[in-house]
Amino acid sequence: MKKLIVPILALLFIACDQEDVDDVKNAANPDDSIEAVREYAFVNQIFQDIGNNTGDAVLTSENSQTSKISGAKNSPDITIEPFDLISFPKTITVDFGEGLLCEDGITRKGIVTIVSTNWYRQEGSVHTSTFENYYHEDYKVEGTHVAENLGENADGFLEYGVTINDGKITTETGESIQYNEDSMRTWVSGFDTPLHIWDDEYLLDGKQSGESSKGVDYTLTVDESLHFVLLPRQVKSGILSLDVGLFKDIKLDYADKTITVLGTTYPFVD
């Protein structure tokens, strides 16, 4: 999604008539709205990544033969307490240590703690993740990530309600970006290989919102389900509606690879 920023930046002005352009130029700090788009793209990627990795950690724990799993070369250490087949809630501690280069090329450090009320595939189970000095590359992550198993849909795919409360990313320079999410993730591929996250695919619906480091509010609504694949990481299809600061109702269509600004549609490179 980050590659979309340059086309968005240009098209926001191309699509405007002269009166619109004057309004944007005369507004306070219009560049802050553009920066908010950049920040949203990056923060969204980090929190979607967290959802994938916490789910993977829970499934790994459920298939473990020991209460502590010592991480392989590209994997964190995982501890399960209590370690049995019947006691819940369970606390799963995922420790990336002082810095671990993971299989996807991202360096993570710190601890993610997951409290699970039941098995990950069990309808009604809730999995709550919190963070202790956790970093995605050089960006500190805070907040509470909750995934609830809502059961199978009519097509037989598991659905998870996902909420992120008080999400916060702090940059190397101390700037902070706020993020909240209320969405639905539908697990459409890779569920037959629970110990291998990288073949997973899922659909995302719902809404995300927050505030940029410059105090610009942003809201994103999924108009048509986003189809995510993890390796290579991409959005195959879906339509987003994005409001950021001065700019309202920007439409991104991943299937047609188009962006619509003020009713005019242009191609983009994803």
Give a summary of the structure in a few sentences.
The chain has 270 residues and is α+β, with helices and mostly antiparallel strands.
Written description of the protein model:
Helix content is 19%, strand content 48%. The model is unreliable at 1-28 (pLDDT under 50). It is an alpha+beta fold and 270 residues long. The protein has a 15-stranded antiparallel β-sheet that branches. It is globular and about 55 Å long. It has one domain (2-265). It contains three helices and 15 strands. The termini are close together.
Key words describing this protein structure:
15-stranded antiparallel β-sheet, 270 residues, 3 helices, alpha+beta, 15 strands
What is the fold's blueprint, element by element?
Layout: H1 5-14, H2 18-26, H3 30-62, E1 68-69, E2 77-81, E3 90-95, E4 100-101, E5 107-116, E6 126-136, E7 139-152, E8 158-170, E9 176-189, E10 201-211, E11 217-230, E12 233-244, E13 247-253, E14 258-261, E15 264-267
What amount of the residues lies in strands? over 45%
Helix content: 10-25%
* Strand and helix order: HHHEEEEEEEEEEEEEEE
Total strands: the figure is: 15
Number of domains: 1
Give me the oligomer status.
Answer: single chain
What distance separates the N and C termini? Answer: 7 Å
